Amino acid sequence: MTPLTPCADDRAANLLLAAFPRSDAERWRGQIDPVDLRVGERLHEMGQVPRWAYFPVDAIVSLLVPTHDGRCDEVCAVGREGMVGIALFMDNGASTSRAVVQAAGRAFRVRPAWVQEEFASSPAVTRLFLRYAMARVAELAQSVMCGRHHTTEQRLARRLLHGMDCRPDGHLWTTQEQLAGLLGVRRESVTSEALKLQRAGAIAYSRGHITVLDRAQLVEHSCECYDLVRGFYRRVTGSQAPASARRAVDAYPSHALVQCANMAGRLAA
């Protein structure tokens, strides 16, 4: 794992940080700390005010909601496109989900007081964070639709594609049991669908290790939700996004972004 330093090119390492205007980026540079995140590490608990805001580089963090039977369902996964800890600038700052590292890797972390101060004082940072929160709301809505209307194979392919976006080397360290928990399905279902993707030449799977062999094949087996959700975040960070995604995020003026961002803080912080 290549170490990060505060002098590293953090503007490119995390896409949300990279979207900061130069003056804001320079101000933040002295406030970020590089950190290595371990698989299974809990960054914060539901109902807890996060001790840090995290900006993943090649780590992946799952936001989970515990169920009455002791399981945890994934609300969404956060990689280099975003941040963990949006509750810090919403409502009372308490998170409505548990944040657990799903794939080990590097990140930058920032103290909550700095995030809150910047959100209150920098118009550019305020709008960027609100647009990111709006993209999170859009992802949640899309994921609800995806869970109801798309197959396990499509959802698995979409999840693996997001993992590949976060870790471009194509190597994902996860078990079928973990994937089943993240998708909310039985492990046998993941086993069956992973075999289909392997026969199609999209992936190679060995115990606890998935290698993406053919991204185009994986896209073919995914659903339209992958491109739409990726477009939501690309629009926020300044990358080119599909027109449908641009309309979904741009349709909201600033005052509506504040309202929707508060909803995002309650649903997926």
TrEMBL record:
Domain HTH crp-type: from-to ranges: 150-216
GO terms of molecular function: DNA binding
Cross-referenced InterPro entries: cNMP-bd_dom_sf (IPR018490), HTH_CRP (IPR012318), RmlC-like_jellyroll (IPR014710), WH-like_DNA-bd_sf (IPR036388), WH_DNA-bd_sf (IPR036390)
Keyword set, alphabetical order: DNA-binding, Transcription, Transcription regulation
Database matches in Pfam families: HTH_Crp_2 (PF13545)
GO terms under biological process: regulation of DNA-templated transcription
Protein name, as recorded: Crp/Fnr family transcriptional regulator
Organism in which the protein naturally occurs: Caenimonas aquaedulcis
Lineage of origin: Bacteria, Pseudomonadati, Pseudomonadota, Betaproteobacteria, Burkholderiales
